[in-house]
Design goal:
By secondary structure, the chain is of the alpha/beta class. It has twelve helices and 13 strands. The protein has two domains: about 150 residues, Rossmann fold, CATH 3.40.50; about 160 residues, Glycogen Phosphorylase B (Rossmann fold, 3-Layer(aba) Sandwich).
Length: about 325
């Protein structure tokens, strides 16, 4: 069975789409599928990284049994045109702001109306996999979930990760705020697409922080950390999945509603829209950390019987 994944990464788009698609690709490959990616050569792309994981990148449409589309710029019109190349189409979405021509739609986000968001946006036959029971989780996080440690509410080890490209430069804000605080251990993670990664690395060396770039052991760092300063989006679910208390800064419009709702439920600390989040905001966070209950509520929300069960629904489409 042949699968093509149409997605994108860039400095502006970020790396989240490609990273979750890699998880999808690896799960499908384990089940006997031949998987290729279709990504453009944009500044900050992850084409080489995807190739290093054993997947070929193509530049035009090919025949396949299944197309998986994870791309905010693609809608029903493009999907209908690609039908001549494929039997089935699956869409990964977060926005619920456009119509799709697809046979399966996966949106892992949790919003007040999450079960009804796509009622008028997909065909009646479309299989809808909605909410956090359908989280796309890398194997490292599934393993970490099975080895949870008890947290006593004290914050001695801090993790900072503001997304692969961090286009709003939140990492630098956090580092400026941290200058006035002392932790036993600070891990700072950036992606290869972060344009300030060299400056961040230098600061980390000067302060004896641990600097990590484009890593494959994020779950391990989350297990070790007592608190994380992060961005909204997919990594919010990763932190919750392993019971790591965290704050989220909203760095994209599509993160706003979900981040605000999770904060209402007491799963995360919402610092707000990035333009209104300053160095002083991060200082206040560190000065008044209240993390009791965050871990437990995150674990409860992400609890499910079978991790990555969505892969079997995708395979059913093309069997």
């Amino acid at each position: 069975m042949k699968v093509i994944i149409r997605t994108e990464a860039s400095i502006e788009i970020g790396s989240g789409h490609v990273m979750r698609c890699l998880t999808i690709a690896q799960n499908l490959r384990k089940n006997g599928c031949i998987v290729k990616f279709w990504m453009q050569d944009l500044p900050g792309n992850l084409i080489d990284y995807v190739i290093s994981k054993g997947f070929k990148n193509i530049s035009k449409a090919e025949q396949a049994d299944l197309y998986i589309i994870d791309h905010y710029g693609i809608d029903k019109e493009w999907e209908s045109e690609i039908r001549v190349f494929t039997k089935k189409i699956a869409v990964i979405d977060d926005l619920a702001n456009r119509k799709h021509d697809c046979d399966l739609l996966l949106d892992q986000n949790f919003l007040p109306n999450f079960e009804l968001r796509y009622e008028d946006l997909v065909p009646t036959h479309c299989v809808k996999l909605l909410g956090p029971k359908n989280l796309i989780m890398r194997e490292e996080f599934i393993e970490a979930r099975s080895q949870l440690r008890e947290r006593n509410g004290q914050v001695n080890r801090l993790l900072v990760f503001m997304g692969g490209t961090d286009p709003t430069n939140e990492t630098m804000k956090v580092l400026k705020a941290l200058k006035d605080y002392s932790f036993n251990y600070v891990d700072v993670v950036v992606g290869s697409g972060n344009v300030l990664k060299k400056d961040i690395e230098l600061i980390c060396k000067e302060r004896y922080y641990q600097y990590h770039c484009q890593i494959n052991y994020m779950a391990k760092l989350m297990q070790l950390a007592d608190f994380a300063i992060g961005a909204g989006g997919g990594t919010t679910w990763e932190r919750s999945y392993v019971g790591l208390p965290s704050s989220s800064t909203i760095v994209a419009d599509n993160q706003r509603e979900g981040t605000e709702y999770l904060a209402e439920l007491g799963v995360i600390i919402n610092l707000g829209w990035y333009e209104e989040v300053t160095v002083e905001t991060y200082k206040q966070l560190l000065r008044n950390l209240q993390i009791n209950g965050l871990s437990e509520r995150g674990l409860s929300l992400t609890e499910k019987e079978r991790p990555n069960a969505w892969v079997y629904k995708m395979l059913e489409l093309i069997e």
